[in-house]
UniProtKB/TrEMBL annotation:
InterPro entries the record matches: Isochorismatase-like_dom, Isochorismatase-like_sf, Isochorismatase_domain
Transmembrane segments: none
Isochorismatase-like domain segment(s): 6-154
PANTHER family: HYDROLASE, ISOCHORISMATASE DOMAIN-CONTAINING PROTEIN 2
SUPFAM superfamilies (alphabetical): Isochorismatase-like hydrolases (SSF52499)
Protein name: Isochorismatase family
């Protein structure tokens, strides 16, 4: 996994969905840290919003970090919609980092679709959640079974850094303290 062949998809971290989610504040905070690290590493990012008319837009805390990032509306549960597929093809992406909600619905279906396309998928467990912790745990196991790497925010960022000599090392290491 290298910054130039990796895409982060921010999946449905939306205003009206968050109050129903277990430990949503923690998920948002860890996702913000990952997004800041990915910016320092110059990793491409896209975001999706599931039916924003009903669930609202991306929460402002995350939206602040999406300046210039394409945000695609969807009704499909999987975030692998045509617009996202176009970005994957255009940028010759081989690895996808997924952040978002809900783990057992949109995140899981996205993982399954990305794996079916032969892409490596990384899901930091601390950057996803569901209404129920049991549903999250079950989804993470299904993701593992499908071949996704269920990791954590720090490991994903350091895997992309690969070396303490990377120019973004100091920026990223300060984020995770």
């Amino acid at each position: 996994m290298k910054p130039e062949n990796t895409l982060c998809i921010v999946v449905d971290i939306q205003e009206r969905l968050l109050p129903a989610l277990h430990e949503a504040d923690k998920m948002v905070e860890r996702s913000r840290i990952v997004l800041q690290g990915l910016q320092a590493l110059e990793v491409a990012v896209v975001a999706t919003e599931q039916y924003p008319k009903g669930l609202g837009k991306t929460t402002p805390a995350v939206q602040l970090l999406l300046d210039g990032v394409p945000v695609f509306e969807k009704t499909r549960f999987s975030a692998l919609i045509d617009e996202v597929e176009a970005v994957l093809t255009e940028k010759n992406i081989r690895n996808v980092v997924l952040l978002g909600a809900e783990a057992h619905v949109c995140m899981l279906q996205t993982v399954l679709d990305l794996r079916a396309k032969g892409l490596a998928v990384y899901v930091p467990y601390d950057c996803t959640t569901s209404r129920s912790p049991d549903n999250k745990a079950n989804a993470l196991q299904q993701m593992r079974d499908a071949g996704a790497v269920v990791s954590n925010s720090e490991s994903v960022l350091f895997q992309l850094l690969a070396d303490a000599k990377h120019p973004a090392f100091k920026t990223v290491s300060k984020l995770i303290q």
